[in-house]
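Lecture notes, part 5. Sequence design as translation. It can be helpful to think of inverse folding as translation between two languages: the language of shapes and the language of residues. The source text, in structure tokens, appears below.
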């Protein structure tokens, strides 16, 4: 069987969408579901629905690799410190150890909910749920930014400006907000950054901690998903699509993360929230007009 270049091109589009949206507060999963439905990525070939789900998991791992590459020095230093602290009896590596503990603490709420409600959460992955997530998440983002962003300094408290200075309680607050991202369209980035605001983190640090939390959260969920796929559907087109998609998602994510943090140092996140609400309303209107079909 020859390669289906049209399908591979569609895969590249989805990978670009993943790279553009994974680390900004607009929901990468929501965009992949919607764009995939609009361009027919999930239909038209044998096993397309199964492969689309597999593809989305694999390219998300490409995005996670971008985090590891971009923040390699911090991550590797934290790992070294973590084990140095353990083997030195707590005499060295305290900062890196505390950072590792904070990541674990922040990951626990999503881990518990994810394991408990895995099937129900996967059942939500459809366009109709994404539209709800877009609109509700966008409104919530505006409210939380107005209530909490920069309010720490105004109350006489100094916001946390170094990701290694988080406390366990701050990490837990971020982790509790990360649970919101299990609804498709809510956005893991938006959820954790809102949690960071509530916890008293500066916006760039909230975004950076969000990147780090993505590693265990997405690797863990991806591992669960990868065990459940039917690999008998694989053909040459699907294999090429996976490889190319992984590379494209990695490269685009690498570029977007750096630009996003630079943006947050100067600008509010309101533009992302407004985009989400408008996109949700437009998609809902298109569904009412019969232009877009939503699975309820």
């Amino acid at each position: 069987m020859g390669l289906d270049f049209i399908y591979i091109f569609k895969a590249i589009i989805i990978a670009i969408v993943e790279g553009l949206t994974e680390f900004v507060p607009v929901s990468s999963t929501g965009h992949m579901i919607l764009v995939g439905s609009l361009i027919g990525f999930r239909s038209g070939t044998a096993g397309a629905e199964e492969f689309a789900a597999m593809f989305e998991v694999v390219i998300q791992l490409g995005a996670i690799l971008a985090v590891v590459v971009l923040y390699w020095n911090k991550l590797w230093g934290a790992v070294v410190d973590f084990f140095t602290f353990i083997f030195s009896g707590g005499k060295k590596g305290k900062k890196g150890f505390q950072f590792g503990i904070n990541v674990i603490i922040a990951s626990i709420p999503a881990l518990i909910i994810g394991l408990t409600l895995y099937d129900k959460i996967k059942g939500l992955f459809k366009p109709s749920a994404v539209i709800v997530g877009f609109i509700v998440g966008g409104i919530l983002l505006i409210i939380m930014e107005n209530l909490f962003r920069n309010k720490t300094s105004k109350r006489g408290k100094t916001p946390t400006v170094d990701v290694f200075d988080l406390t366990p309680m701050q990490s837990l607050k971020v982790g509790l907000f990360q649970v919101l991202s299990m609804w498709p369209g809510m956005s893991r980035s938006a959820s954790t950054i809102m949690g960071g605001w509530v916890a008293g983190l500066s916006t760039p640090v909230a975004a950076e901690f969000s990147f780090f939390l993505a590693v265990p959260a997405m690797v863990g969920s991806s591992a669960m998903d990868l065990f459940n796929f039917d690999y008998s559907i694989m053909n040459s087109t699907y294999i090429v699509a996976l490889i190319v998609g992984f590379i494209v998602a990695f490269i685009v994510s690498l570029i977007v993360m750096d630009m996003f943090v630079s943006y947050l140092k100067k600008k509010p996140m309101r533009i992302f929230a407004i985009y989400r609400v408008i996109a949700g309303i437009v998609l809902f209107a298109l569904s009412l007009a019969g232009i877009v079909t939503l699975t309820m």
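The translated text above is only one of many valid answers, since several sequences can fold into similar shapes. Residues 236-264 form the longest helix (29 residues).
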